[in-house]
Design a protein that fits this description.
By secondary structure, the chain is an alpha/beta fold. It has one domain: 2,3-Dihydroxybiphenyl 1,2-Dioxygenase, domain 1, CATH 3.10.180.10. Helices cover 19% and strands 33% of the residues. The chain has 3 helices and 8 strands, in the order βαβββαβαβββ. The strands form 2 sheets. Strands 1-4-3-2 form a 4-stranded mixed β-sheet, with no helix packed on it. Strands 5-8-7-6 form a 4-stranded mixed β-sheet, with helices on one face. Strand 6 and strand 7 form a beta hairpin. It is globular and about 45 Å long. The termini are far apart. The model has no long low-confidence stretch (mean pLDDT 86).
Length: 124
């Protein structure tokens, strides 16, 4: 069986209530590179294209049963405390504390849809 042929892969998050585009715009400090208000927005990030879509009416039920997102977006940051301050400033402070793992320090935070954000600072 031949392998799947593709030319790019990107992440797309469902925005059930219209809060994700403003959240990511505030977090990233940039407007979407492409925006169809109420339908779709796209941010071009370093190494990742992030799409945010409003589910069509006939697909809403697929997303209503999710109490939180099912994916984590990892942001490798140069200074963890600065990233935490940014999230706190836009109204989404991380609920936990910084943990230390073998690969660095990190903290979990959440976007308005409950998708987990992992802010990670590598060990130098």
């Amino acid at each position: 069986m031949p392998s799947l042929q593709y030319h790019t892969v990107f992440v797309a998050l469902a925005d059930r209530d219209g809060r994700l585009v403003p959240f990511y715009q505030n977090l990233l400090g940039q407007p979407p590179d492409l925006e169809l208000p109420g339908v779709y927005a796209e941010f071009q990030l370093a190494g990742l294209r992030l799409g945010i879509f409003q589910p069509k009416t006939n697909h809403q039920s697929e997303f209503e049963s999710l109490s939180s997102g099912s994916m984590s977006l990892c942001f490798e940051v140069p200074q963890l405390e600065v990233a935490i301050d940014r999230l706190t400033a836009i109204g989404y402070p991380p609920p936990g504390t910084i943990t230390t793992a073998s690969h660095g320090r990190e903290i979990y935070a959440y976007d308005p849809a409950g998708n987990r954000l992992i802010l990670h600072e590598s060990l130098q």
